[in-house]
Amino acid sequence: MHAHLGDQLVVESPATGAAHRDGEIVGLHHEDGTPPYDVRWSDTDEVTLVFPGPDAHIRHLERGHPALVRETRPESTSAATVPTGTADPGDIGRRVAVERRRRGITRVETARRARMSPDYLAYLEEHPADPGLGTLIRLADALGTTVTTLLGSGIGRPPGQGHALLHPRFRELGPEECRTLLSTHGVGRVAVSGADDRPVVVPVNYEVVDEAIVFRTAPDSVAARAAETEVAFEVDRLDEAFSQGWSVLAVGPAGVVTDPDAVRRLAQRAHTTPWPGGEREMWVSIRPTSLTGRRITANGQ
After folding, report:
1. 176 with 255: CB under 8 angstroms?
2. CB 273 within 8 A of CB 215
């Protein structure tokens, strides 16, 4: 019997031959994939060390086709091989790796938080895989994101359509916690006055540099109207799986960064380029004079 990380171990009923328990292989103890295995059981979500008996077989994940599996019965002696060459991570693995790097968390620490083997996390990030819902929930919780985000679903609809918690806890956030949540990078929303003096809210890719919120845009864009005015900037994170999340609102004056050395430093430190593309070399800096935030969690957290 040989297995790879991400394969399923299926245990059959001796009487009927029907599968009565299965689990995801999240840890190997031998390089050739022979038993024993660390298995996360689908019915209890617990990880146990398993020495498969004659009533167990491996359901192999087809590399490159996460939705398809092929089964190896106990009498089979052929070992499945992992493809060589450049790894071809699946969409879920890419999203996990991006979220992990964005938060500056090591692979080992992420695996510890998600209660899984670092080897399995490495496999998940580097190869196509189809982890179970329990695995996705733990990864989302470890990375401070959502299952929806890791799956890449829901892009065509606004977030927050899930049911509210039965006993939610709502609390205001202090300035220091707001700074911690804000002091990263990603996409936020800036509120400005439009051409007809009506309020307009636009999303921008932002950075936090020396306690200032900075973003780049084109001089003729709507976002450029933030320059030389007082603006509001908002960023949030929602966890659809747990119906909880937080938001931070920063208010303060905005101005254009004109010093060439400062512009060069901002460009060098930027984590990403503006998603809309095009020439967007005008840097706008917001110096918050007010920071407020709020968080919704389950009561007791």
Report:
1. no
2. no
Element (H, E) at 169: strand 168-173
- Indicate whether 234 pLDDT > 50: yes
pLDDT of residue 63: 43
pLDDT tens per residue across span 273-298: 887 887 888 999 999 999 999 999 88
Amino acid at 149: T
This prediction's pTM: 0.54
Give the torsion sign (CA, 237, 184, 152, 59).
negative
The answer to whether 299 and 169 are in contact (CB under 8 A) is yes
Cβ 24 vs Cβ 132: under 8 Å:
yes
User: Which amino acid appears at position 122 of this protein?
Assistant: A
**Quick one: which of 59, 61, 47 has its CA closest to 92?**
61
If we measure between CA atoms, which residue out of 289, 288, 217, 290 comes closest to residue 256? 217
pLDDT for residue 65 is more than 50:
no
- C-alpha 281/C-alpha 279 separation (Å) is 6
68 confidence band (pLDDT: 50, 70, 90)? very low
Q: Which helix (H) or strand (E) holds 71?
A: strand 65-72
149 or 172: whose pLDDT is higher? 172
Instruction: Report pLDDT for 289.
Output: 95
Q: Give the three-state DSSP class for 136.
A: helix
Q: Determine the 3-state secondary structure of 288 from DSSP.
A: coil
How many whole angstroms separate alpha carbon 134 and alpha carbon 180? 29
The pair of structure tokens assigned to 31 is 């390089």
Whole-number pLDDT of residue 175: 92
Fill in the DSSP letter of residue 87: -
